[in-house]
Specification:
The complex is a heterodimer of chains A (492) and B (171).
Chain A lengths: L7 H15 L4 E4 L2 E4 L2 E3 L2 E6 L4 E4 L2 E4 L2 E3 L2 E2 L2 E2 L16 E3 L3 E3 L2 E4 L3 H6 L5 E3 L5 H8 L25 H4 L7 E4 L2 H12 L3 H4 L2 E4 L3 E2 L19 E3 L4 E8 L5 E2 L2 E4 L2 E3 L2 E7 L5 E3 L2 E4 L2 E3 L2 E7 L3 E3 L2 E4 L2 E3 L2 E7 L1 H21 L18 E2 L21 E4 L13 E3 L6 E10 L5 E10 L3 E3 L15 E13 L5 E14 L1
Parallel strand pairs in A: 1-5, 1-27, 2-6, 2-28, 3-7, 3-29, 4-8, 4-9, 4-30, 6-10, 7-11, 8-12, 12-13, 14-15, 15-17, 16-18, 17-21, 18-22, 19-23, 20-24, 21-25, 22-26, 23-27, 24-28, 25-29, 26-30, 32-38
Antiparallel strand pairs in A: 31-36, 33-36, 34-35, 34-37, 37-38
Chain B lengths: L10 H36 L11 E2 L8 E6 L3 E6 L3 E3 L2 E8 L6 E8 L2 E5 L7 E7 L9 E9 L6 E10 L4
Antiparallel strand pairs in B: 1-8, 2-3, 3-5, 4-5, 5-8, 6-7, 6-9, 9-10
The chains are: A alpha/beta (492), B alpha+beta (171).
Chain lengths: 492, 171
C-alpha cells in the first residue's frame, strides 16, 4: 500500500491556504479535483461545472502535485484564467505549481476558451484522434473508445485492478457487503471509530441501490478516517444522497487514508453549507484506483467532482455528471410566482364599472379605412351617415345599396347609439329604428325600420333625423349633448 | 474482477430531475390557477354592481335656502342643490334633490382634491337627501366638487354626469 499519509506541515499549509481562500466569495471547482497535492494518473473527467459565481478549471483547480496522462472534456461555464505562473495550464488546471505531463483537454464550441487555451495541451474535439494522442502523449489508447474518435470515451472494463498486484493485505477483519443495510452498518462502525471497521478489508458482493436514501460518508471526518481497503469488485453503489450541512467535508468517502479499488458510485451530493465537497472522496490521503463516479453535486465553496483534496494517489479513475448552484434550484419554481406578483402589481384591479354597458349592435363590422388616430382623453367623437335613406316598402330595409352608419376611428373615444326618428303627417316624431352601441372603428351596413305598433309606413318621402347618443368607449359614461343629423327617408 | 462499470445514465440524477420536474409543474399549475383566480376576481370586481336606493332619501324638495338652486343638466334633467353646503360634525348639508320632472335616477358623490369623500345611494325622481356623511373633515371656505351620476331607470345605462364645484360654508 502506497498511502502517503498526512504530514503536519502540509496540513497546516493547506489550512492556511484554504483560510485565505475563505475570504473570497466565489466557488472554486475542478472538473476532477479541487486540489491535487499528490499524484493523479490516467484519470479523466467529463462533467458540467461552473454554475453560479465560480472559478473553474476543467480538471484540477489547484494543482500542487503531479498530473500525468489525464484529460478532461468537461463543459465549463466560466473558465478561470490563471495568473502569475508560467507552468499553469488554463482550461486544465487553474492555479498551482505542480507538474502537468502528457495531459490535455478538449475544447468544444466554447469561443471564450480560445483565448485561455494553452496551445500545447488544449485541442479541439475534432483534432483528438486517439492515434495522434497516443503518439504525441505516449498514451495507451486502448482505454479509449476507438470507433468514435471524437467522443474519446474511456473503456472502464480495461481498467480492472487486481488488488493482489499492488495492495498490501491490511490484515484486519474481512467484511463482505451484500446489502444496503450492511453497508450502512459498516459506515456507522467506521464513523464511530471502531478499529476493526476502520482498518477492515471490505469487499462489495452486489450492486446496491439506496433509492434516494440519505447516507453518511465513509470516514466522516479527519478524526474518523477510513484506513482499510474497499474493493468494489466492479459493482456499483447508486441512489444515495449525501447531506453535507454543518460538515467540514463531504463525499462518498469523507476522509480516506486507506485504499479503494474497482468501485463505481452514482449519487447526489448536497454540499450546501459544507466548505469542501466531492463526489467520490472529499480528502484522499490513501489510494484510489480504477473507480468511477457519476455525480450530481450541489457544491459549496470548494468542489472537485471526483475528489476534493488529493494528497495521495488516484489512478485510472473517471468522473461524469454535473455541478449545479443552489440558487437557481430554489429560484426556478419561484419564478412563475414572481412573474404573477409583478403582473398583479403592474395591473392592479380597477374600480368597478359605474354603468351597465350598452350592448354592441349585433350587425357591426370593422371599418376598412380606419385611420387609427391616437386615443386621447379629450371629448372627441365623430360619425358618418348618408343623407338619403331609400327603403323597400315591403321589407322596410335599405334598398339597392348599403346604408352605412359609421363611427370612424379618428382618435375618437366615444361609441354611439343611433336612433332614427321620422316625422309623420301631424309633425310628430316617431322612432323607427334604434341601434345598439356602435363602437369606435365600426359601422353597420344596413338597417331595418321597425315602426311602433299601429303605425304603417307608406310610400313617400319623409323628413327624418338620426340622433346620436355618445358613450365613452372605456367607461360607458354618456357624454356630451346628443347630436342629430337630418336625413330624408324615401319609402318605395 | 471488474464487472460492468461502463458509465450509464445517472439514474439518481434522473430521479432528482423527475422530482424537480414535478415540483416545478405543480408550481406552474398553481401559478396558472392563481392567475385565473386573479382574472376572475378582477372580472368580478370590475363588473357593475347596481347602487342601492338611498335609505335616507325623502320625498319632496328640501326647505329652500338662499343658496339652493335648480340647475339644468344638458342631458335633459335638472338637479336641485344647495350651492353653498354647510359642513358640521362630519356631515355635509348639501340638500340634493332629483326633481320630480326628471326621467333619470342619480346618485351624488362628493370629491375633495380628486378624492371621493362621500357618496349617496340612488335618488329617484321626486326625492332628495339633506345631508351626507363625509370621510374627511372640511373647513369653511374649502372647495368640494359635487358630482351627480345619472342612470336610465332600471337599465342603469349612463345618462351622463354633472359636476359642480361649491364652496363649503361654516356653521
Amino acid at each position: 500500500m502506497h498511502s502517503r499519509g498526512s504530514d503536519l506541515s502540509r496540513l497546516l499549509q493547506d489550512k492556511k491556504t484554504r483560510g485565505a481562500d475563505m475570504g473570497k466569495k466565489t466557488k472554486m471547482e475542478g472538473g476532477f479535483a479541487y486540489r491535487n497535492a499528490g499524484k493523479t494518473l490516467n484519470c479523466y473527467a467529463a462533467v458540467k461545472i461552473g454554475a453560479g459565481k465560480s472559478e473553474n478549471a476543467g480538471f484540477i483547480y489547484d494543482n500542487k502535485g503531479e498530473a500525468l496522462h489525464c484529460f478532461t472534456r468537461s463543459t465549463v461555464r466560466g473558465w478561470k484564467r490563471g495568473s502569475g505562473h508560467r507552468k499553469q495550464k488554463d482550461g486544465f488546471v487553474s492555479i498551482g505549481s505542480g507538474t502537468v505531463s502528457q495531459c490535455f483537454f478538449l475544447v468544444k464550441k466554447d469561443k471564450k476558451l480560445k483565448k485561455y487555451r494553452d496551445r500545447t495541451i488544449g485541442r479541439a474535439v475534432s483534432a483528438a484522434e486517439p492515434e495522434q494522442i497516443g503518439a504525441e502523449y505516449d498514451w495507451d489508447y486502448d482505454v479509449f473508445e476507438q470507433e468514435n474518435a471524437a467522443k474519446m470515451d474511456f473503456i472502464p472494463e480495461s481498467w480492472s485492478f487486481d488488488p493482489l498486484d499492488g495492495l498490501e493485505e491490511v490484515g484486519a477483519k474481512n467484511v463482505r457487503i451484500k446489502t444496503e443495510d450492511e453497508l450502512l452498518d459498516f459506515i456507522d462502525r467506521i464513523n464511530r471509530g471502531e478499529p476493526a471497521a476502520v482498518n477492515a478489508k471490505c469487499e462489495l458482493a452486489a450492486n446496491l441501490d439506496f433509492h434516494g436514501r440519505k447516507i453518511p460518508s465513509i470516514g466522516c471526518d479527519r478524526q474518523h478516517p477510513f484506513c482499510g481497503t474497499f474493493d468494489g469488485k466492479g459493482y456499483k453503489i447508486k441512489g444515495f444522497v449525501l447531506q453535507g450541512k454543518d460538515m467540514a467535508e463531504i463525499g462518498f468517502f469523507g476522509f480516506l487514508k486507506g485504499s479503494v479499488i474497482n468501485l463505481s458510485v452514482d449519487g447526489i451530493i448536497k454540499a450546501d453549507g459544507c466548505p469542501l465537497a466531492a463526489g467520490f472522496c472529499a480528502v484522499n490521503e490513501g489510494e484510489i484506483r480504477c473507480c468511477e463516479a457519476v455525480i450530481e453535486l450541489q457544491a459549496g465553496r470548494y468542489a472537485g467532482m471526483f475528489v476534493g483534496e488529493n494528497n495521495g494517489l488516484i489512478e485510472r479513475c473517471s468522473v461524469s455528471g454535473k455541478s449545479r448552484g443552489m440558487f437557481l434550484l430554489w429560484l426556478w419554481p419561484v419564478i412563475p410566482f414572481l412573474a404573477l406578483l409583478i403582473g398583479v402589481l403592474a395591473n392592479p384591479p380597477k374600480p368597478p364599472e359605474d354603468y351597465v354597458p350598452i350592448l354592441a349592435d349585433s350587425s357591426i363590422v370593422p371599418n376598412e379605412d380606419n385611420e387609427r388616430g391616437k386615443r386621447t382623453n379629450e371629448n372627441k367623437a365623430s360619425y358618418e351617415v348618408p343623407k338619403i335613406l331609400k327603403v323597400d316598402a315591403a321589407t322596410l330595409t335599405a334598398k339597392s345599396e348599403p346604408y352605412v352608419i359609421q363611427n370612424p376611428d379618428r382618435g375618437g373615444n366615444y361609441d354611439f347609439v343611433a336612433v332614427l326618428y321620422m316625422t309623420d303627417s301631424r309633425g310628430k316624431e316617431v322612432e323607427v329604428y334604434h341601434s345598439g352601441r356602435i363602437p369606435v372603428g365600426y359601422h353597420i351596413e344596413n338597417l331595418t325600420l321597425v315602426p311602433p305598433d299601429g303605425t304603417t309606413l307608406t310610400n313617400g318621402t319623409y323628413n327624418a333625423k338620426i340622433v346620436f347618443s355618445f358613450y365613452h368607449h372605456d367607461t360607458g359614461e354618456k357624454g356630451m349633448v346628443d347630436s342629430a343629423a337630418p336625413i330624408t327617408v324615401k319609402i318605395e | 474482477m471488474v464487472q460492468n462499470m461502463k458509465r450509464k445514465k445517472c439514474i439518481t440524477a434522473g430521479r432528482k430531475k423527475k422530482k424537480t420536474g414535478i415540483v416545478t409543474s405543480l408550481a406552474v399549475i398553481l401559478c396558472i390557477g392563481m392567475a385565473f383566480g386573479y382574472i376572475r376576481f378582477v372580472q368580478g370586481y370590475r363588473t357593475f354592481r347596481a347602487p342601492e336606493h338611498e335609505a335616507a332619501a325623502m320625498a319632496g324638495t328640501p326647505a329652500a335656502a338662499d343658496s339652493y338652486q335648480t340647475l339644468p343638466v344638458k342631458e335633459g334633467y335638472a338637479v336641485g342643490i344647495d350651492t353653498n353646503p354647510v359642513y358640521k360634525d362630519g356631515v355635509l348639508h348639501l340638500n340634493v334633490a332629483n326633481n320630480a320632472g326628471n326621467t333619470v335616477w342619480f346618485l351624488v358623490r362628493v370629491y375633495k382634491d380628486d378624492k371621493k369623500i362621500a357618496q349617496t345611494g340612488i335618488l329617484h325622481p321626486g326625492e332628495y337627501i339633506g345631508e351626507v356623511e363625509c370621510e374627511k373633515k372640511l373647513t369653511a371656505g374649502e372647495s368640494v366638487m359635487i358630482q351627480t351620476v345619472a342612470y336610465e331607470p332600471e337599465t342603469y345605462h349612463s345618462e351622463g354626469v354633472a359636476r359642480i364645484t361649491c364652496e363649503v360654508a361654516g356653521e
